[in-house]
Design goal:
Blueprint lengths: L2 H11 L5 H5 L7 H15 L11 H22 L1 H12 L12 H4 L5 H15 L3 H14 L4 H11 L11 H10 L1
Helix pairs in contact: 1-4, 3-4, 7-8, 8-9
């Protein structure tokens, strides 16, 4: 089967695909086997492995969704307690039990590792005064995770006009500050 046809089919079937199927491992696989499977899957599906001229955004998004699910599966299956809970959920027919997903990783914004790395890089660039480069990093991060409120807020803050250094705030801004303190 053609790789892109496989990606299309897998992307559509993610909701019905267990972490074991996605990582191509058995439920009793060791952590070493899980880690090896995780790295094989990332190598196969990571968007950076499939850079295309003309950049096909839909294909990149499909690969990003698959990689996010691979990472989610690895986090769930790498701890014995969460693996057992997951297996119990699978036995009830739940592929991704919602109640069990309130982990630190699920509360992060942005959620994807790539978007978090780009956000960190953008913040470092902002600290060095390289706002144009930071803006480019944030815009790229938003391509990986368009719903991230943190990325949107950071980009908006970076794009907001700043008063020149040494210019006092307007009287209206001063009174607003006094009332908020």
């Amino acid at each position: 089967m053609d790789f892109w046809a496989h990606v299309e089919r897998l992307s559509k079937a993610l909701a019905e695909t267990s972490y074991f199927e996605l990582l191509n491992i058995e439920p009793d696989a060791s952590v070493l086997d899980l880690t090896a499977a995780y790295h094989r899957a990332l190598k196969r599906y990571h968007p950076d492995q499939h850079m295309m001229s003309g950049s096909n955004r839909e294909k990149e998004q499909q690969l990003a969704r698959i990689c996010a699910r691979i990472g989610e599966g690895y986090r769930v299956l790498s701890k014995q307690s969460t693996r057992l809970t997951y297996i119990q959920a699978l036995n009830r027919g739940e592929m991704r039990p919602q109640a069990k997903r309130a982990t630190l990783g699920d509360r992060r914004d942005p959620k994807t590792e790539k978007a978090r790395v780009l956000l960190t890089s953008a913040k470092q660039l902002i600290a060095r005064g390289a706002s144009a480069s930071a803006r480019a990093k944030l815009e790229l991060a938003l391509q990986f995770e368009p719903s991230s409120s943190t990325l949107k807020a950071t980009l908006a803050e970076l794009s907001a006009p700043k008063p020149p250094i040494g210019v006092a705030p307007s009287p209206q801004e001063s009174s607003t500050k006094e009332h908020s303190e």
